[in-house]
Design brief:
The complex is a heterodimer of chains A (about 500) and B (about 160). With about 500 residues, chain A is mainly alpha-helical. Chain A has 21 helices and 2 strands. Chain B contains 6 helices and 2 strands. In chain B, helix 1 packs antiparallel against helix 2 and helix 5 runs antiparallel to helix 6. Classes of the chains: A mainly alpha (about 500), B mainly alpha (about 160). Chains A and B meet through helix 9, strand 2, helix 10, helix 17 and helix 18 of A and helix 1, helix 2, helix 4, helix 5 and helix 6 of B.
Chain lengths: ~500, ~160
């Protein structure tokens, strides 16, 4: 493995990795474009490369793409990639307070730590963890998703009732289209266009990018989105770093775990890690107002999904998300299909994957801390009358390139307007996004589980892993309430 | 433009309720081919039913909130309503333009129009128009090169 690392560092691979990371960072930083798009667009360029260099380039783009989204999330409140949505919650308030440098530095450091943590787990535990993931039956998957859905409550903002309406709207939108379990058409109103359902990526971009463009139209009298400021204090202080260690560990572990589960990925992980950080915090009320722990959780969690998503790919030949599916496609074109014997038969390629993750994360960290943090904010600090049309232009091109679908363009626009209306009425959009991401998987798993148990709910509590998730869900809902009650009692006693 | 939340939110909730009702009705029409404890039809009706329950209960809360309560006294403010309306119409026209006319032509027209619109009075001079048009052409040229290099696909349309 070390020989492979030295070879990667001394060959053309490191230059191509640099190209991949740079392209990924640019794609990540531009709202509407995504890590997936960066990887997919680079695949044809890797045809003429050796398998090792091609892989290194694609992994570089993957890590750059996931990391780049933090810049626009912090600077203009528009997540560059869906996996950085939760970064806007505290990153943008920090930028508005004149602490953009701090927010960007914390986000880049957390992204780096999340990726390295997932790399460690990838190298040490890949075969064992993928076996654990395979042991998940529909019962465990259902309970894991329910645990994820519990985030809806704490991310509902000022009104849980509004959060529930928003979450249920997401689940209802997931009903539209061909049913994944029985292939029956449901709620399509007889339209073939609606048979494909509501694509969540297009919806997510619409909800968070297009709606924010409309919100900014309302503030057009202010020339720039964030006030002019010096990008300084980008390095985390020793105190900040030490305080963040539990958050790093928690968010990395959650991110890795979500990454392993097929079909969920970084776009969901950032919400769960943010939610858990908020619940674990002594001062949860400061979240959403510029708490750096919110940025740490989101960025550490979404980058940790990278190693997590690669685990089932390397060990079992199962892609963890869309990007790893594209990576697998690239490997198969080179005649090296990942599967249970991949690590034994193609040990060098497996080492290349592992080492590329590590090297790309270092490249990303260096590029962002030395150049990106200073250059991207200048580009994103264009006057609104130039920036907003530019964002719309790139967003529409990005949405179209998700699946080359005109329908998705209109889904993105429609959801943009829905998002704007929800913002006006102060309905939280996060629960809607969470259920849009998880809705279809939830339905498939819950129905499969009930078919397996002949309609009985007992296996949800008798199977150990499912029970653990159930208890974790209950704890996630109850513990913050209890600690809040205890804290308020203590405060009352202190004032008395 | 300002609306009282007590009037505006029920309108939103009625729209959501109607949407939920439509999905409930459509779900009930789902043809079942596989026998399961929970079919696609049943699941659809349960979820849309729960959505209806959540919107209706929220509607009741808002309608019966007191005038001086937090819910009752809130105001919904829409700043720059004309700009929002025009931008919305232009956004859809731009999308139709991309599909029918061509990405680059539509982008050029869209960017010029939006910059002039967003600049307001400041942008209504011939000199500004000229600079805006030149800048937009340069922007379109750059994205053309980038998209061609990276083989970014765009909808096939009549023009460029």
């Amino acid at each position: 493995m070390i020989a492979n690392l030295i070879e990667l560092c001394t060959s053309a691979a490191i230059i191509w990795m640099f190209v991949g990371v740079s392209l990924g960072l640019v794609f990540g930083a531009v709202p509407g474009l995504s890590a997936t798009l960066a990887v997919v667009l680079l695949i044809p360029f890797t045809y003429s490369m050796s398998t090792e260099i091609g892989l290194a380039t694609l992994i570089g783009a993957y890590i750059g793409g996931i990391s780049g989204g933090l810049v626009s999330a912090i600077m203009i409140n528009m997540p560059g990639t869906p996996s950085s949505v939760a970064t806007t919650f505290d990153g943008f308030p920090l930028a508005q307070q004149g602490r953009a440098g701090k927010a960007l530095g914390v986000a880049v450091t957390s992204s780096f730590i999340g990726t390295v943590a997932s790399w460690i787990v990838l190298v040490l535990f890949a075969p064992y963890l993928s076996k654990l993931a395979l042991a998940f039956s529909p019962f465990e998957m259902t309970m894991a998703i329910i645990f994820g859905l519990s985030a809806v409550i704490s991310l509902s903002g000022e009104s849980i009732h509004k959060g529930v309406v928003s979450a249920m709207l997401g689940l209802v939108l997931c009903l539209i289209g061909i049913d994944d379990a029985s292939f029956a058409k449901r709620a399509t109103f007889g339209s073939p266009t609606l048979s494909g359902g509501i694509p969540y990526m297009a919806a997510l971009i619409g909800l968070f990018v297009i709606s924010e463009v409309f919100n900014q139209y309302e503030k057009i009298s202010e020339k720039y989105i964030v006030p002019k400021q010096k990008i300084d204090h980008v390095w985390m202080t020793g105190k900040e770093f030490v305080e963040s260690i539990p958050n790093f560990i928690r968010s990395s572990l959650i991110g890795i775990f979500i990454g392993i589960l097929p079909g969920i990925g970084g776009s969901f992980a950032n919400f769960v890690t943010y939610d858990q950080a908020k619940k674990a915090s002594k001062d949860p009320d400061s979240f959403g107002k510029g708490n750096i722990q919110g940025v740490v959780a989101s960025e550490c969690g979404n980058n940790a999904t990278i190693g997590g998503a690669l685990i089932p790919m390397v060990a079992m030949g199962i892609p963890g998300d869309i990007v790893t599916a594209a990576l697998m496609g690239g490997l198969m074109l080179k005649g090296a299909a990942p599967g249970p014997y991949f690590m034994r038969e193609h040990a060098e390629l497996a080492d290349t994957i592992f080492n590329s993750v590590l090297l790309s994360s270092f490249l990303m960290f260096i590029l962002m801390m030395l150049i990106g943090i200073r250059v991207f904010p200048i580009i994103l600090r264009l006057p609104k009358f130039v920036l907003l049309p530019g964002v719309m232009v790139m967003t529409l091109a990005g949405i179209y390139n998700l699946n080359y679908s005109i329908t998705e363009l209109f889904v993105g626009l429609g959801m943009g307007l829905v998002g704007y209306i929800l913002d006006k009425f102060k309905y939280p959009k996060t629960p809607l996004v969470i259920t849009l991401i998880l809705g279809r998987s939830f339905e498939v798993y819950v129905r499969r589980a009930l078919t397996m148990s002949d309609g009985s709910l007992a296996p949800f509590v008798t199977r150990p892993i499912a029970l653990v998730f159930l208890l974790a869900t209950v704890a996630a809902l109850v513990v913050p309430k209890i600690s809040k009650m205890v804290a308020s009692k203590k405060a009352k006693k202190a004032t008395a | 433009m300002t609306f009282r939340n007590k009037i505006a939110e029920p309108v939103l909730l009625l729209v959501l309720t109607a949407f939920g009702g439509l999905i409930f009705w459509q779900s009930s029409l789902t043809k079942i081919t596989v026998e399961e404890p929970v079919t696609a039809r049943m699941y659809g009706m349960i979820i849309s039913g729960l959505f209806l329950a959540s919107t209706i209960s929220r509607l009741v809360v808002v309608l019966f909130s007191r005038k001086n309560s937090i819910e009752g006294s809130k105001m919904i403010v829409v700043k720059e309503p004309l700009l929002i309306l025009i931008a919305c119409v232009v956004m859809f026209m731009y999308t139709f333009g991309i599909i029918n006319l061509g990405y680059y032509v539509s982008t050029f027209i869209y960017v010029v129009f939006m910059i002039m619109l967003l600049r307001g009075k400041e942008g209504r001079s011939l000199k500004t128009l000229l600079f805006t048009a030149l800048g937009s052409a340069a922007f379109c040229g750059i994205i053309y090169i980038v998209f061609k290099t990276f083989k970014v696909y765009l909808p096939n349309a009549l023009l460029f």
